[in-house]
UniProtKB/TrEMBL annotation:
This is 4-carboxymuconolactone decarboxylase. It comes from Verminephrobacter eiseniae (strain EF01-2). Coiled coil: none annotated. NCBIfam families: decarb_PcaC. Residues 36-117 form the Carboxymuconolactone decarboxylase-like domain. Gene3D superfamilies: AhpD-like (1.20.1290.10). It holds the Pfam family CMD. GO terms for molecular function: 4-carboxymuconolactone decarboxylase activity; peroxiredoxin activity.
């Protein structure tokens, strides 16, 4: 493991999805899943999210559309919260999920709206 990339990724991961989520993910990791936590922190957050070519707000919008299209509700929940933390508005999230519904199907769009409403309620927005 590249410790420098891991630390950079850990910092970004915490800034985007929050300390509580990251702490829980790391605390709940066991011998089997710890390597996945290291991989996602080092490569996803440390290598890709730290790149200068696209800002975090844009990366969040991209993640929302991809996760909705792939029907990954757990990750979508996390990244809706991250998108809000990165300055994406509720209105922009709505537009992303409307686009998903048209291009990926109504079930994907409807499911995304359901998850977003849950996150907004949890965040008090």
């Amino acid at each position: 493991m590249n410790q420098e990339l891991y630390e950079k990724g850990l910092k970004i991961r915490r800034e985007v999805v929050g300390d509580a989520y990251v702490d829980a993910s790391l605390k709940n990791a066991d011998e089997f899943s710890q390597p996945m936590q290291e991989l996602v922190t080092q490569y996803c957050w440390g290598e890709v999210w730290s790149r200068p070519g696209i800002d975090r707000r844009t990366r969040s919008l991209m993640n929302l559309s991809m996760l909705a299209a792939l029907n990954r509700p757990d990750e979508l929940h996390t990244h809706i919260r991250g998108a809000i933390n990165n300055g994406v508005t509720k209105a922009e999230i709505r537009e992303v999920f409307l686009q998903v519904a048209v291009y990926c199907g109504m079930p994907a769009g409807l499911g995304s709206f359901k998850i977003a409403r849950q996150v907004f309620k949890e965040m008090g927005i």
